[in-house]
Amino acid sequence: MNNLQNHTTSLELSKRLKELGFKQESLFVWYANGDDAHLLYLGEDEMRPMEAKTYSAYLASELGEWLPYEVFPKSANGMHWNLHIGVNATGEWRCYLDSEYRREICFFGDMPTVMAKMLIYLAEQELINPKTLSHE
User: Fold this and answer.
1) What does the alpha-carbon distance between residue 56 and residue 103 come to, in Å, rounded to a whole number?
2) Count of helix runs (H) and strand runs (E) in the chain
3) Residue 47: CA count within 13 A, CB half-sphere
4) Terminal Cα-to-Cα distance of the chain (whole angstroms)
5) Which of 12, 60, 109, 128 could be cross-linked to 122 through a Cys-Cys bond (beta carbons 3.0 to 4.6 Å apart)?
6) What b/e readout covers 91-109, taking b as 16+ CB neighbours within 10 angstroms?
7) What does residue 32 show for φ and ψ, rounded to 5 degrees?
8) Crossing angle of helices 111-124/11-19, nearest 10°?
9) How many other CB atoms sit within 10 Å of the CB of residue 6?
10) pLDDT digits 0-9 by tens, 105-129
11) pTM for this one?
12) Which residues contact 116 (CB under 8 A, 6 or more apart)?
């Protein structure tokens, strides 16, 4: 099944990204009204801050602009972690951080999901600041 929802972040991930302070600028949004949610296209001319019931439904290309190549955790004593995104042997996307010695964290799923989960992890661990990121 190859529909639009497979190319954007889910409503659940979109809500969490908004809670963490990621800018609400995307070509698509989730409009949530109670138990009902709709995925809507805004277009480039309409990318602007959104109202309370809307959540950016990010494309992988939008999320990719925010993902760092490497991070420097405070607890790693100067060591850095590299970020990797790719497809495994079964065709499933994966996104992971690894150091010279081990894999730190890994997410599996479709491309926007693994990228969103990594951004959420990095923000929760205070390895990135969502409020300073932009789509440039």
Assistant:
1) 30
2) 3, 7
3) 13
4) 32
5) 128
6) eebbbbbeeeeeebeebee
7) -110, 130
8) 30
9) 11
10) 999 999 999 999 999 999 999 999 9
11) 0.87
12) 9, 13, 14, 16, 17, 58, 63
